[in-house]
Amino acid sequence: MSHAHQAPSEIPAHPITDRVREALAVTQRGCDELLPEAEWLRKLARSEATGQPLRIKLGLDPTAPDIHIGHTVVLNKMRQLQDLGHTVIFLIGDFTSLIGDPSGRNATRPPLTAEQVKANAETYYKQASLVLDQARTEIRYNSEWCDPLGARGMIQLASRYTVARMMERDDFTKRFKANTPISVHEFLYPLMQGYDSVALKSDLELGGTDQKFNLLMGRHLQTEYEQEPQCILTMPLLEGLDGVEKMSKSKNNYVGISEAPNSMFGKLMSISDELMWKYFTLLSFQPLSAIEQLKTECAGGRNPRDAKVQLAQEIVTRFHGASAAESALADFVNRSKGGVPDEVPEISLVLPEGVQTLAIGALLKQTNLVASTSEALRMVDQGGVRVDGATVSDRGLKLPAGTYVLQVGKRKFVRVSLGIK
Known about the structure:
By secondary structure, the protein is an alpha/beta fold. The chain is built from 17 helices and 13 strands.
């Protein structure tokens, strides 16, 4: 680690080759900010000249993981940097999470046990491995260097940063002005995160745009400890399927990476033509030149649906393999022609005694395809209801006993068996 004690201006100048420029373009693809760009370029040039891979850090909270494709934006970036030959450090914040979340918002959440942390970390890593190259990934836990620090070390660490600088952090400023309490130990959180970068001799740290203050803390502390400071790379948050809110489970606008291939494919096909290009930049591994070419073709009259199919196939292939992606496409095409998907939930209903038929509105409600009878009738008016592939136009339709495939909208299907008592 001969370069560990060099200040940024002293990073030796190595030639900026085409490969180095290409690596810079890969780094910047889809990113929000790369700070400072000139330093990162020098680090890339040094790595190219010496063959020494750069160390790239991502810190994770080991709370219960269930990754959706929004989370993979940062993982994809790490994979792209691994493919250039660099090392990724998957840092699990087990020490910081054992303190519990200090932000006051989740004060009732008890700190996780060491066992929970380990189990969550393993699940997370298993899911992340679908994106990362395991051969170039180090998994580390920050208790490794935080525990030995002890009280004396903590005090020395705290002396390296001022209260005034700490108060520049957005949420601290707001809480201070609003007279909302701030506990002293909350100041230790960003300090510990920054100290992780010192312990790992990190060259680059990745995070969401909301992490900028903590990422810059790493740079500051590395300089304090006479290390070459890390560069920081923030990635934008991905909007969900609705194109408005950021992707999240609670907003139900997400695509989970362990979701069934057909469902994943269908969801990706439902995004708007405009949002599709952002998904291409942040989620696809196709070169930007290929994406630009596709964009030009669509602007010139090619059906944007073709591009969306490419994107959906690439993502389903990444998490489920090529044959699953092929059959998901076939399933989607079949459905869009009014066909029925391969797997349809089955429900049995029995008509009350003496009743021979069931009205379409009641039937859709009882099979949970709609929330209410009025919604069912509205869907009929809009032409969004099919029975055995035929569109229903009559709100008063009554169905006798038998087996039917009901469809509401493009994606909701049920095979119902209607029996008589």
